[in-house]
Amino acid sequence: MAQQFEPPSGTRDFLAGALRTRERVFAQIREVFERYGFEPLQTPAFERLETLTGKYGDEGDKLIFKILRRGEHEASGEADMALRYDMTVPLARVVANYGSQLPTPYKRYAMGPVWRADRPGRGRFREFAQCDVDVVGSSSPLAEAEVVCALTDALDAVGARDYRVLVNSREALAGLLEVYGVPAELGGGVLITLDKLDKLSPDKVAAELVAARSLSAETADSLVGDLTAADAVERMRTALKDSDAGRAGLAEVDRLLELASPKVGAERIAFTPSLVRGLDYYTGVIFEVVAEGMPGSIASGGRYDGLISALGGPDVPACGGSLGVERIIGLLDDSADQGERLDVAATVIDEAGAAEVMGFAAALRDAGLRTEVYLAASRKLAKQLKWAADRRARFALIYGAADREADVVTVRDLDSGEQAQVSPAELVAYLTGRYAPSR
Amino acid sequence: MAQQFEPPSGTRDFLAGALRTRERVFAQIREVFERYGFEPLQTPAFERLETLTGKYGDEGDKLIFKILRRGEHEASGEADMALRYDMTVPLARVVANYGSQLPTPYKRYAMGPVWRADRPGRGRFREFAQCDVDVVGSSSPLAEAEVVCALTDALDAVGARDYRVLVNSREALAGLLEVYGVPAELGGGVLITLDKLDKLSPDKVAAELVAARSLSAETADSLVGDLTAADAVERMRTALKDSDAGRAGLAEVDRLLELASPKVGAERIAFTPSLVRGLDYYTGVIFEVVAEGMPGSIASGGRYDGLISALGGPDVPACGGSLGVERIIGLLDDSADQGERLDVAATVIDEAGAAEVMGFAAALRDAGLRTEVYLAASRKLAKQLKWAADRRARFALIYGAADREADVVTVRDLDSGEQAQVSPAELVAYLTGRYAPSR
């Protein structure tokens, strides 16, 4: 394959098999979100540049695909639009723009591509699908529970197994820093290092806390030791009681566990005091869904009450989460979608009968049978039957001069090899009667 | 609505109602194309700039959205990628790239957005959906007929009525110019002017042929007179017999009429000698589907044997067509999709019972009922029932302290006003038994 004909670096062409797998997964997820009363939203592929810049930090800003101005302005080399980088900034714009037209709270889902100029790599793309649910305008813990339930329900629907929901809270993390005597100005850095506990050994994390985050060796050892102990949860529950923030955070976590457990199962959701993630904008509970044998998370989210206003929208509470849909699709066995079976392959071995063959095909399609007519040049039956087999057709139709003479269509069952001659008027009834198409 | 929160000029936000209408139309069309054995293809939103430039003519090139280079190259002001402008250039790249992995012939459909920096206007967008079927690798008239049948079948599926398929051929047009004595070098311009016969009076077209296309008044009058006569088709059939190209073109047209008529209906498809369209790349039959009371066409296409190689692909015959899907959606009454009905609205008037309400909602959703839990702050029943009515719920659940005490859920039928007390264990059976959700 010549490089010039490949899709641009970090993007993919989806041929039929892979595309059907994706569409099936999206449909399964959509059905779950609809059952929860989330409404779909689709925003444009690009936004005004100023809508996006400054919203994703310096690193994020560099990954935005910018669109050059057009016409006489093209020569300026300036951009005025940029490709969607996530689903959250467009949500904030929509909430700001349509306000009272939207239900309160506004529960929406968004599924579609986003674009990031990241270095492409294994499983990392420049065009990839995101799949978000958010509740804007509710500060209720019920909203957080609904988000967690909708995401795990969607994971069930797409066949994810053996996952666990890890729950923590930003308040609980603030309490943690407080009770271990971490100075406020070091807190952010300490949490960034603690977030590595799922990848690095406790010793290495403690060493980084001392070397890079200026903690005393004693504080670092105590913090890391307690967080990684076999009874870490109990130690943390006890420790957090010494702080107002800690108690408030624990209460948030426990309320979410209580509300989500009827659906998720109490054994699959747990307080996880070392969970840190996305501290930049979360304000309340945070969660991640992890699965046996998979690095990273397959879903995540939390409460982010200040974000919609920071993004230019009104000052409303909000929470939400995201499914790692590319990762999920990457794990699926898509062989079932590699080529949908054809019901009927209509051969054309006699030019004079071609219009009648088109008529047979039309009638079969109207009856719901997936039917193709042979479109290549050969008029040899053997070659056309080879094509029918390649297309994995269940039946082949043959309508040669002798058939026309006798006013019959020859129907060959390509599974059994049996063959029957059927009157054209009875063809649809014959095929639908002995065969229910699988679609 | 502040301008800064509106979607960029020429693009649209699709809220739930409009998006459901679109998705329904796309699903109906997809189902038809699948029944014909067309395979889906999805290519990236952007292509390398050099893949697109020079493919759409000077005017088209100006309408391409170009993406600025990134990182250290951003300051150059140069572009290296560009947003997809149509579905045909990506098809050519895919055919060139995947060759033998694709079925022969390759019958594919593509549905999705394309982007053009056109001046936005009524019904003209910068981001809009295209919906194409193409057959690559067949020079058979059966392929052209399959394209016409698939497109008209899709029009039937989305509810289009009273349309007609106009058919002509590039060869027939060459023959027309020949028999009316138009010099070859004037041919292109003459056809561009003749293409205006559906908008301008015959007199004006004849005048333009003389003034702008250098035809003699006699030739112009004869050509326009014959093409607009009541018996134009007969006159043209007679005239074209005097030319090799004319006879070949007529034969192409008649074969398509014969092959497509069993499906389309002979009364809805006709030779239309004045049909010109897209002469830049069509090489054989051309067609347009027009509907009563609608300007322009709702579908169109033809054979374009040289295009795939001109676009960088291999030298293969091809034909295809496109549905004017935005135009079709614009005509639909989308009131039916303006808000899908909720099956169950679960109120939360008693904080202590909230987890059990979440459990009821989970069970109802598992049974397929579209269920929402009240997420706003009020704990007043009247306010929550108002919410249930706003969400057009069929049933409301009430689970207050007295209900918990009695171990029942109060189910209110919001259509009839009737109310029943149901044991939590029987809730799902009670609701699914007396009510079949419409989804």
UniProtKB/TrEMBL annotation, chains A, B:
The cross-references to Gene3D superfamilies, in alphabetical order and at most eight, read: Anticodon-binding domain, Bira Bifunctional Protein, Domain 2
Q: Which Pfam families match?
A: HGTP_anticodon, tRNA-synt_His
Q: Where in the cell is it found?
A: Cytoplasm
Q: Does the keyword Cytoplasm apply?
A: yes
What terms describe the molecular function in GO for this protein? ATP binding; histidine-tRNA ligase activity
Provide the catalytic activity annotation: tRNA(His) + L-histidine + ATP = L-histidyl-tRNA(His) + AMP + diphosphate + H(+)
State its Enzyme Commission number(s): 6.1.1.21
Q: Where are the transmembrane segments?
A: none
Matching entries from InterPro entries are given as: aa-tRNA-synth_II, aa-tRNA-synth_II/BPL/LPL, Anticodon-bd, Anticodon-bd_dom_sf, His-tRNA-ligase, HisRS-like_core, HisRS/HisZ
Q: Which residues form the Aminoacyl-transfer RNA synthetases class-II family profile domain?
A: 1-332
Query: Can you cite an annotated GO cellular component?
Result: cytoplasm
Looking at its record, which EC class is this enzyme? ligase
- Does the keyword section mention Ligase? yes
Keywords of the record: Aminoacyl-tRNA synthetase, ATP-binding, Cytoplasm, Ligase, Nucleotide-binding, Protein biosynthesis
What GO terms in the biological process aspect are recorded for it?
histidyl-tRNA aminoacylation
Residues bound to L-histidine: D86, M87, T88, R116, Q130, D134, R277, Y281, Y282
User: Could you describe the subunit structure of this protein?
Assistant: Homodimer.
* Family statement: Belongs to the class-II aminoacyl-tRNA synthetase family.
From the Swiss-Prot or TrEMBL record, give the protein name.
Answer: Histidine--tRNA ligase
